[in-house]
Write a structure and sequence with these properties.
Blueprint (H helix, E strand, L loop, with lengths): L1 H10 L3 E2 L5 H12 L8 H8 L4 H12 L3 H27 L3 H11 L4 E2 L4 E2 L7 H17 L3 H14 L1 H18 L4 H20 L12 H5 L14 H23 L7 H23 L3 H5 L6 H17 L6 H26 L6 E2 L6 H9 L7 E3 L4 H5 L3 H4 L3 E2 L3 H7 L4 H14 L7 H11 L3 E4 L7 E5 L2 E5 L2
Parallel strand pairs: 1-4, 5-6, 5-7
Antiparallel strand pairs: 2-3, 7-9, 8-9
Length: 480
């Protein structure tokens, strides 16, 4: 398990606390722990946080145990990888004939890659709730192969509390598998689907998802023009061919396994259930094309991640075993995949990002970290102006590291705008108000401060403003 976690981390360009999507997950946890924080940005944070329970769960766990968010995030990151490895091993023990092939699968799963034009990677270099939900869903697949339907249902329910859309795709996959494999469950499942349909109807009309069946207007859509993964009908032909290749791989190898008598008990449901996701994807496409808000927000293209997982399982079998498995063949496949992972992970870690430690567990003690430590000493109601792409520039957003309101965080606020039109327009207008941050002047900064009630400016160049703090080239100026 330890080599698996290390190789995953190396291939993910190392572990970094607060990176990327943690720009809104960590502030959501902080807000759950301290409701008086983020008086201006709470609406931005809650636009997505209200859809999950993971932020509240992390907040309560941290408060109850005294474990800080950096340590807790790393523990959940490692736990997500261990859960994935365990699920893969249990799946392999049903579908493969030797443990060497199972080891080959684990090595293959360390090779991080993106799922084409879906905004999703198979691994992340930080804790992401969808990774934990995916591990639970994969464990559900292992349970289905063992005909343990109740256990599989529990994993999907747990995943739903962590990352609803990831759980939704696994739930549909496994529900179809159960309907195929377990005739005695069909009547109960029909009743459960009817109840779920009634619950969904309530949620979409009078419940927490109310209003999401409306159409996104052109002004809202214009704020999402860089999010090409949201609209599959705009994909180039190569993306369609690549993603639909999963269907061909799964169908061909399953038929091959069945023809030679290798298909295990429960495998028919797993294979056909995964392919059913493509039919669902096709059914959602017209609503996505019509720009129905819910159809866009579901990001249904991410179900190809599940197909990628099953295709990887099958490809490893075809390479390491096939119709005439031998121990030497499986050992060679495991060794080759392990060496490939080591070579690729070593290149990423030591050539592409040699300055990064294998795991950055906390806010770094560099100029950015020192500036953010000073920010955390300011009034919790203080409002900050920084380069809209500061999270990418410094590896961590001001909301995460400084725990303070920021005028706009261009990359992640724009993504959150997908869930709420008002947030999308707010982000657009604030980015326009700043214009080019490199061209920002002291007078313009004062004007923004007067209009938007901003207290501090964070920048790397000198301004004719009162200097409050400096570390290296990083300066914090008072705006009032």
């Amino acid at each position: 398990m330890l080599p698996f976690v290390v190789l995953c981390t190396m291939n993910s360009a190392t572990y970094r606390y607060g990176a990327s999507d943690q720009a809104f997950y960590i502030p959501a946890v902080v807000l759950a722990m301290h409701p008086d924080y983020f008086p201006r940005d709470a609406s931005v944070i809650r636009a997505q946080a209200t859809l999950t329970l993971v932020d509240d769960a992390m907040a309560r766990l941290s408060s109850a145990t005294g474990i800080g968010l950096p340590v807790l995030s790393f523990a959940l990151y490692a736990g997500s990888l261990l859960l994935l490895a365990t699920a893969a091993w249990l799946i392999a023990s049903r579908l493969y004939r030797t443990h060497w092939t199972a080891l080959a699968l684990l090595a293959a799963l360390t090779l991080r890659h993106s799922i084409s034009r879906t905004g999703t990677n198979t691994l992340e270099g930080y804790f992401h709730p969808r990774q934990l939900a995916f591990g639970l869903g994969a464990l559900g697949v292992a349970f289905i192969l063992r005909r343990r339907v109740s256990a599989a249902a529990v994993t999907v329910l747990l995943a739903g509390a962590i990352h609803p859309t990831t759980a939704l795709w696994f739930g549909i996959w496994l529900a179809v598998a159960v309907a195929i494999n377990e005739p005695r469950w069909r009547r109960g499942m029909a009743a459960a689907f009817a109840a779920a349909g009634i619950l969904a109807l309530w949620a979409l009309t009078a419940g927490p998802l109310g209003g999401r069946l409306s159409l996104m207007d052109p002004e809202w859509l214009a704020t999402l023009d860089t999010k090409d993964y949201l609209f599959p009908l705009e994909w180039p032909a190569a993306t369609w061919l690549f993603n639909l290749a999963y269907v061909a791989i799964i169908a061909a190898i399953y038929r091959w396994r069945r023809a030679i008598g290798c298909a295990g008990d429960g495998e028919a449901g797993v294979a056909l259930g995964a392919l059913a996701l493509v039919a669902l994807f096709a059914a959602v496409l017209p609503f996505n094309a019509a720009h129905v808000a819910l159809a866009v927000q579901l990001q249904s293209s991410r179900m190809f991640w599940m197909l990628d997982f099953l295709a990887t399982i099958y490809i490893v079998w075809a390479v390491a075993e096939g119709p005439a498995p031998t121990r030497a063949r499986a050992q060679l496949a495991a060794a080759a995949l392990l060496l490939l992972s080591l070579a690729r992970g070593g290149y990423v870690k030591f050539v592409e990002f040699p300055q990064r430690p294998l795991a950055q567990l906390d806010i770094p003690g560099n100029d950015w970290g020192r500036a953010m430590a000073w920010a955390r000493l300011t009034d919790i109601r203080s409002h900050w102006l920084a380069d809209p792409i500061h999270a990418a520039r410094y590896g961590m957003s001001l909301r995460v590291a400084g725990e303070r309101d920021v005028f706009v965080e261009g990359l992640k606020d724009a993504a959150i705008g997908m869930y709420d039109r008002s947030i999308a327009i707010r982000t657009r207008d604030r980015l326009a108000a700043i214009g080019s941050f490199d061209a920002l002047t002291a007078d313009r900064a004062r004007a923004l401060a007067a209009t938007y009630d901003i207290d501090y400016l964070l920048a790397e160049r000198p301004f004719d403003l009162p200097l409050a703090f400096q570390s290296g080239e990083l300066r914090i100026y008072r705006l009032r």
